[in-house]
Design a protein that fits this description.
four-stranded antiparallel beta sheet, about 35% helix, Rossmann fold, 3 domains, Dna Ligase, domain 1, alpha+beta, about 350 residues, 12 helices, globular, D-amino Acid Aminotransferase, Chain A, domain 1
């Protein structure tokens, strides 16, 4: 690939330093992913301009006029702290007719709404947990088909935001309390799902028309106390101290070739059903009896070196530099008119 002029969009406050820093420093920084991506882009020969965006699109247009990028590397997951507004930023890039990396606006819209995504997957005969949506200000009224235990989440947020051991509820009192917590603290509707007790699996997928699926990854809970639910809480995902204490790790899943192929094929079906492009991670649960449930799809997942997506790509023979290059290539190839 010839060198590109890359405009990197990041959240304001997460602009990485221009100079090289120690790996140990980068790993502890909030701008770790942004640093890894920008540093790699420059190392492989691209010219990069980084801007931080919060609640104003003007800097994007101004930089477009001055820098004239050939592609925008989109690392934003929200706009003005509203997660469902990330698709609007991408729509704006499309209106400016500048190629961008990652998922298209429709795929972001469909997958960010967990209830809508589940309805679409169910239509395509993809097995998902049964669920109920509780709007802000309302109380949960369970239909007979939903039985405890249940798990309560934000309808829109990802990255395990608002998820803790208390998210799994086993009675009416716990249910109402947790729904109220989501409404009052996360400030979104709540989704109440059938709790699937099983192995936590992740599958990375890349592509627009032709898809590449990475090896199936698994989160293990080696030292988790027996009285704890084995779920990916906020602490499980982001607290290194907590991970070490409870032996929580992610690695290549130990599966038969047949099971792995079945799960990878299912991940492709999800990717297609939700109109995803660029790259995404599909989250699943595998029960002891072999039943597979798709929990959600995460477009534009965490891209830092050493995280699940990059590690599963490396296991497939795709180095981090090649991964970033491939994401750029997919962005240059994508034509928004295909979604019209």
């Amino acid at each position: 690939m010839k060198p590109q002029r890359v405009l990197a969009l990041v959240h304001k406050g997460l602009e990485p330093p221009d100079q090289k820093v120690l790996r140990s420093t980068a790993e502890q920084a909030e701008w770790r992913m942004e640093y890894d991506v920008v540093r790699t882009l420059r190392t492989i020969g691209h010219e990069v301009c980084v801007i931080g965006v919060h609640d104003d699109l003007t800097p994007i247009r101004t930089t477009m006029d001055e820098f004239k990028p050939t592609i925008t590397f989109n690392l934003m997951e929200a706009f003005d702290d509203v997660v469902v507004f990330d698709q609007n930023v991408v729509s704006y890039l499309e209106l400016l007719k500048v190629p961008y990396t990652g998922c298209n606006p429709r795929g972001l819209t469909l997958s960010r709404d967990k209830a809508l995504a589940k309805k679409l997957m169910a239509y395509h005969r993809i097995q998902v947990p049964d669920f109920l949506v509780v709007p802000i200000g309302a109380k949960a009224k369970l239909p007979k088909r939903l039985q405890f235990p249940l798990i309560v989440k934000s309808l829109w947020y990802e990255s395990s935001t608002g998820i803790s051991q208390a998210s799994v509820v086993i009675n009416e009192e716990q249910l109402q309390k947790r729904v109220q917590f989501i409404h009052d603290t996360i400030l979104t509707p709540a989704i109440v799902e059938e709790f699937i007790d099983g192995r936590e699996l992740y599958v990375g997928v890349m592509g627009n028309d032709r898809l590449q699926v990475f090896p199936v990854w698994e989160m293990s809970f080696a030292k988790m106390p027996d009285n704890n639910w084995r779920i990916a809480t906020e602490r499980v995902k982001w607290s290194v101290k907590y991970q070490k204490k409870h032996g929580i790790d992610t690695a290549l899943a130990s599966l038969s070739d047949e099971a792995a192929e079945t799960i990878q094929h299912l991940a492709k079906r999800v990717y297609r059903a939700l109109d995803l492009t660029g790259y995404a991670r599909i989250d699943l649960r595998l029960k002891e009896n072999g039943d597979m449930y798709v929990i959600e799809a995460n477009p534009n997942p965490q891209l830092a070196q050493g995280e699940d997506f990059a590690e599963s790509a490396r296991r497939a023979g795709v180095s981090y530099a090649k991964l970033i290059e491939r994401i750029i290539s997919l962005g240059l190839q994508w034509q928004p008119s295909r979604m019209a």
